[in-house]
Design brief:
This protein is mainly β and 116 residues long. It contains no helices and 11 strands. It is globular and about 40 Å long. The N and C termini lie far apart (40 Å).
Length: 116
């Protein structure tokens, strides 16, 4: 059974940092491109960052470039998103996605709230 389980979200003050994790199981993690998306209330889901396999090339959304780093540990079947200098507009549910060709899997999401 495929599972993507996000963790690490929470409430943080503006300027703070969070590290999100997404633990994968039920598929060959190392073969998949892994991505983080986010969806704020009333807005469409948008791509935040992705990391390919196996070369590990990365892509970042312009809105967060310079403040985030995506990484993966294929031995642990986990992808991470380090977020720094968080802003209130970064408040959203953050989702993990795995893709390989026509296959795709989504996690349930983790809430990130940036507020003083």
């Amino acid at each position: 059974q495929v599972q993507l389980v996000e963790s690490g979200g929470g409430l943080v003050q503006p300027g703070g940092s969070l590290r999100l994790s997404c633990a994968a199981s039920g598929f060959t993690f190392s073969m998949y491109t892994m991505s983080w998306y986010r969806q704020a209330p009333g807005k469409e889901r948008e791509l935040v960052a992705s990391i390919s396999n196996p070369g590990g090339s990365t892509t970042y959304a312009d809105s967060m470039k310079g403040r985030i780093t995506i990484s993966r540990d294929n031995a642990k079947n986990t992808v991470y998103l380090q977020m720094n200098s968080l802003k209130p507009e970064d408040t959203a549910v953050y989702y993990c996605r795995a893709t390989l060709g026509f296959r795709q899997y989504w996690g349930q999401g983790t809430q990130v709230t940036v507020s003083s």
